[in-house]
Amino acid sequence: MHLNIMEKSELNNNHINSSFQREKWFGHEFLYEFHGFWFTKTYLETTQKVLENFKPHPKDVILASFPKTGTTWLKALLHSITHRYDTKDENSLTFNHPQELIPSLETNLYVQEIPQNNTNSQEFISTKNPQKSRILATHIPYQIFGGVLNSSDCKVVYVTRNPKDTLISLWHFLRKSKNFEQDPWELGAAVDQFCKGIVPFGSYYDHVLAYREESLKRPQKVHFVTYEELKENPKNCVEKMGEFLGCPFEGENREEEIEEIVKICSFEKLSNQEVNKSSELPKVFPLPYNSFYRKGQVGDHMNYLEDEMIEKIDNITREKFHGIGFMYGI
Ligand code: A3P
Fold first, then answer.
1. Which residue among 58, 121, 149, 150 is the one 20 to 30 A from 222 at the CA level?
2. Which CATH code is given to the segment(s) 55-324?
3. Residue 66 CA: which ligand 1 atom is closest?
4. pLDDT, tens digit, for every residue of 82-132?
5. Eight-state DSSP code of residue 106
6. Catalytic annotation on 139?
């Protein structure tokens, strides 16, 4: 028996609705619980596909992050650090959105059946040449993805950002979605859901803590960096990432090389590239490329969150982070 696409999707919908606990999110969206974390229906399906099919190569670099913590910036940085001697790659950030240079597994590569003629995507997830080194991104929590990540010697770079700026960035990002127009995600509700952990790929706190713990246990496998450190001392962070990735900055030009990478990946530079200003929708993502660049600042939450909202988030941060000695996020 062959099912047509509509029938298949109906079957899948019914399966997800009946098999997973769900909570209303906003608009017509629900979030579904999978191994203690929350996913939209689409990303629940694609995460399952990634878990079943993705095999990291030993030389791969996986950029992991919670959404809105600086993933796009890190994509640009990792690409620039690893391609800095590749003359064919010189203008890649001028003509490509960082999402194109480093695709994300569950929000990009596994969103749809990749047509055989899409050689770019096929290449990214091909298992044919395990010696090839790729950089791929993911928001899948370590608690779910750790087994896959540890199935090869691939390296992991994890970026995080303070919880209040992360939430405000997420809130702004979703304001651009159709769902928001129909039924806005009120900021008060967003704060409540964020604190309960019921946001896509949440809980934020559990997400951050597991990758951090792994970076402390195995610093040669997982490199942990924060958005705030990157803002404060980008050169130092770039240098450390070069070392971690096995391509350290050496020789008499090392200072200039680091400075150049920091410059071409800066918010000012990238957000002004035509490709990144585009309001066109990428093929497999529901929001335009320009939605990945907004303000790029530390502390913007102060312009939006009321005192009680700040207190509520800070209380959770104290409990979850400070309680175990991770003095971050307030
Ligand atoms: P804001 O909404 O606070 O401006 P992600 O890439 O994980 O989706 O995160 C998006 C956030 O990173 C947005 O934050 C965006 O503006 C910011 N960002 C994107 N590129 C950046 C860059 N090159 N430098 C600093 N911040 C950047």
1. 121
2. 3.40.50.300
3. 7
4. 999 988 888 899 999 999 899 999 998 898 665 555 555 666 666 566 666
5. I
6. yes
